[in-house]
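For the sake of clarity, the format in which proteins appear in this thesis is described at this point. Each number in the token line that follows is a code from a learned vocabulary of backbone shapes. One such record is shown here in full, so that the layout can be seen directly:
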Amino acid sequence: MRKAKVQRKTNETDILVELNLDGSGRCDIATGIGFFDHMLNHLAFHGLLDLSLKAAGDLDVDAHHTIEDCALALGQAFDQALDNRSGISRVGSAFVPMDETLAQVVLDFSGRPYWIFLAEWNTPMLGSLPSEMIEHFFQSFAAAARATIHARVLYGNNDHHKAEALYKALGRAVRQAVQLDNRRGQAVPSTKGVL
């Protein structure tokens, strides 16, 4: 069973994540940040992940701690659910269009956290989500999931479309990367024999 349950509790946030990598896209998300919930729903739906994520954070300060800690807890859940990463495809990629926008995410559950993020925003806020926190989400998720992630918006004008295309692409890339490869069996997908 490729499932995980992670609770991250700090003086700033209290987050509970339950993740099933072999789900059907069912999700129950409540972070107190509407647009962020919307993005996480896209990640789960397009990744065919069953995801429950409940967060209580210091939103009276701002959204930073809540978004960062959600990304860290979600990344930890992926790391746990993948265990030693045996049998997975490991690498996934997706291009996703949304009207005038095209986004791409390529990821590798390599065990080596790294991220490249290339996107520009026209507005400082998307609802109650600071635009700058989208990159920080990808960075924090990559660190905790021990994944390399390259994400970029190739072009687009509407910031809502750009953000949504990125999260959909992340979901689809994750879906490819975590799928089990029947030809590999239980082998770890690395010439080193360990990730």
Q: What stands out?
A: The mean pLDDT is 96. The first helix runs from residue 34 to 47. The longest strand covers residues 13-20.
